[in-house]
Fold:
Amino acid sequence: MDEKLLTKICAIEGQISSDEIQFLHGMAQRVSPGGVAVEVGSFRGRSAAAIASGLAKDCHLVCIDPWTLKTENGRGYFTPETLLAFQENTSPWQSVITQAVAFPNQVAAWFGRKVDLFFSDSLKSKVGVKMVWESWIPHFKTGTTIVTHDYDPDTSGRWHYPAVVAMVENVLKPMTLRHKRVMLTWSGVVK
Ligand SMILES: C[S@@+](CC[C@H](N)C(=O)[O-])C[C@H]1O[C@@H](n2cnc3c(N)ncnc32)[C@H](O)[C@@H]1O
Structure:
């Protein structure tokens, strides 16, 4: 990933590190032409930009986030300003991005394509993590790269989400090969 692009994406307010941006970008570069990527939890577009900028021009990235469908607002996630910031920040890649203002299980219920790259950076509760993965696993195929943020099995850090760790250990690891970790990000490739 060139330095100028990395600087541009790092300037988008967000919650993944520069190493994770480069990791997601590299994963997206491996998606075959015409392929489909899905992101759950998009906020202001940092991870979406990392993925979209790595995809071939005829690929699609569906970015799912409730944005203004929710009202409680601890971290500024659910404001019209955040929704618009996503559009503005990802505008260089708008030809590959579909912004879905929705809940992830709603989109999964009718989604008609197998997914090549799936990235989740959204709910951390046991119920939420289960909902995201159980609704999207049926859309995976052999070779789908699955990626989750906020995996930290060491329990040492500030960011520890036991439900994400349990999902990776109990469900995602057994169904995948070629496991990788970069900072808080975990990935595997579906068997
Ligand atoms: C940690 S932020 C995502 C950060 C983003 N990936 C980035 O690169 O900066 C978590 C996101 O999850 C979204 N979210 C909240 N409730 C959700 C739900 N029920 N389903 C999916 N996403 C949800 C929030 O709106 C927020 O944008």
About this structure: The helical segments are 3-10, 18-29, 46-52, 80-89, 104-110, 126-136, 162-172. The two ends are 28 Å apart (CA to CA).
